[in-house]
Amino acid sequence: MAPSDPQHAPTRTEEPAGNDVDLYEDVQPHTARPTALWRPKRVLITRAAMGWDHGRGIAARAASLGLNVVELPSDRLTLQAAEDPRRAYADAKATLAVVVAPPSKLRLQPIAPSADWRVDLAEGCPAHCTYCYLAGSLKGPPITRVYANLPDILEQLPKHLGLGAVTSRQAARAIEGTTYEASCYTDPLAMEHLTGSLSALVSWFGSWDAEAQLRFTTKYDAVDPLIGLAHNRRTRMRVSVNPAAYARHEGGTAPVAARLRALRRMAEADYRVGLTIAPIIAAPGWEEAYSSLIQQTSRALAGLDPDLTVELITHRYTSSSKDVLSSWYPGSDLDMSGSGRSEKRTKFGSIKQVYDPPTMKAIRTFFDRELATHLPNARLLYFT
């Protein structure tokens, strides 16, 4: 996700992705619709996860919602094999697994350019984004795994204070303190009604007397659990947005207008907020589409003067992610043909297909102008 992918009606996966009307509707609170929350078909909880208070709490929340909670006799996750790969994908996406984070997940990793450190509350996402950045990077079926050993995760955070390479060292972002990104391999708000993990993390940062900040980005709008928390402005919530024409690639998520309403509510609750415009898709008509999106955001925040940041992430993919996404979403018309692309080698040695230099320059020039015009008080953190 960062930048950051439901089954009994009504759920998000049963709604069409991206709604042209939703994007342009009034985003004031009086028009808000009831939030549709993810209802996985099954919640699996491992034996080790049941040994943690947080794990048992997740199981209890799921049971109170009438979900099918299965306590496993061991720590091994198993799904009945499906001959049809599409069926296997759907079964995995409809599954929430409560597990214990292994030691490797407790070793915080750098997550430039977003933040100093990555902190994982979960791995996987219930959304169905046809450009999903997790495709090809996570092994096995796309089950969403949430971690029961939250105290172990929290214990690691102070050990990394002041030791990052992004906000801890860069003068332009030093005002943020040491930053911890909670939405690298998941969208934590998507499952907050089941886990309570994000609320616990926000409250923990709120009580931590240190130059530190929690960050998360989301394509969902269910912010009710976060509104009344004592966050002490140590959390920045960003909404990941795209114009309606491209939000159709984001199946199972909240409509863009609902995300903007959530952004306003969080700003009114004195949270630091932001936009993650991602992935920027340079398809025909992109300038008009993104200009409308930025103007819509400006209207959503009218009358407020929030601490607002913007992160700009252009669409990119690897050959392995393309293969996985093509198998998951064979009907998608998202352009991964390689036309207008350049190759970029990652720090791990893989090759990404990114937009070519003229296209990247045009995108950057456009957003610099539009943001200065319509969101002049926003602070651009990075463009990639």
What would a concise description of this structure say?
By secondary structure, the protein is an alpha/beta fold.
Compile the SSE list and pairings.
Layout: H1 20-24, E1 42-45, H2 53-64, E2 69-71, H3 85-93, E3 95-99, H4 103-106, E4 109-111, E5 115-118, E6 122-123, E7 128-129, E8 144-147, H5 150-156, E9 178-181, H6 192-195, H7 197-207, E10 212-218, H8 224-227, E11 235-241, H9 244-247, E12 250-251, H10 256-268, E13 272-280, H11 286-300, E14 308-314, E15 317-318, H12 319-328, E16 341-345, E17 351-355, H13 357-374, E18 379-383
Parallel strand pairs: 1-2, 1-3, 3-8, 5-9, 9-10, 10-11, 11-13, 13-14, 14-18
Antiparallel strand pairs: 4-5, 6-8, 7-12, 15-17, 16-17
Helix pairs in contact: 11-13
Descriptive account of the structure:
By secondary structure, this protein is of the alpha/beta class. Helix content is 30%, strand content 21%. It contains 13 helices and 18 strands. An 8-stranded mixed beta sheet has the order 4-5-9-10-11-13-14-18. A 5-stranded mixed beta sheet has the order 2-1-3-8-6. It has a 3-stranded antiparallel beta sheet with strand order 15-17-16. A hairpin with a 3-residue loop joins strand 4 (109-111) and strand 5. Helix 11 packs parallel to helix 13 (357-374). The longest helix has 18 residues, at 357-374. 47% of the residues are buried. Mean pLDDT is 89; it is low at 1-32.
